[in-house]
Design a protein that fits this description.
Elements: H1 3-24, H2 27-34, H3 36-39, H4 47-53, H5 61-65, H6 68-77, H7 90-104
């Protein structure tokens, strides 16, 4: 391999890794993929789901009382009618919880 070819390969690999990290850390994309169906696009569940499952909006006082760590535990272990969300790394759980919390502030 020539020197310039090698630097192209290294450069390409760097972009792949950076791209994957960027995706992994997008709390918004993770939220849309894993939470939105029950919690709603803006953190407010649709009335049917809220009634049947008992999901409270992200900006409700009881939800705002939860700490970041408590929310991460809910995502990992589930709670009541919410089953655990599998397949997320710790960093992804944190990113999605931070995004969810940001919805509660709006
Ligand atoms: C299949 C539907 C469903 C999905 C998907 C879902 N949730 Fe939930 N979530 C619920 C329900 C139902 C509750 C209410 C649980 C209870 O208290 O019985 C809840 C409660 C919560 C709570 C509050 C827990 C508490 O102490 O009251 C948080 C925080 C939460 N969800 C975050 C998330 C996040 C973040 C995601 C995505 C990673 C997610 N949820 C995905 C249904 C869902």
């Amino acid at each position: 391999m020539t020197k310039s070819m090698r630097s192209i390969v290294v450069l390409a690999a760097t972009f792949v890794v950076a791209g994957a990290m960027c995706f992994a850390q997008s709390g918004e994309a993770l939220y849309q993929a894993h939470c939105q169906s029950c919690h709603g696009p803006k953190g407010v569940p649709n009335p049917g789901i809220a009634k049947i499952l008992g999901v409270m909006p992200a900006n409700s006082p009881a939800m705002k009382k939860l700490t970041e760590a408590e929310m991460m535990a809910v995502v990992k272990n589930g709670k009541g009618k919410m089953h655990p969300i599998h397949g997320l790394s710790d960093a992804q759980v944190k990113a999605v919880v931070l995004y969810f919390r940001s919805l509660g502030k709006k």
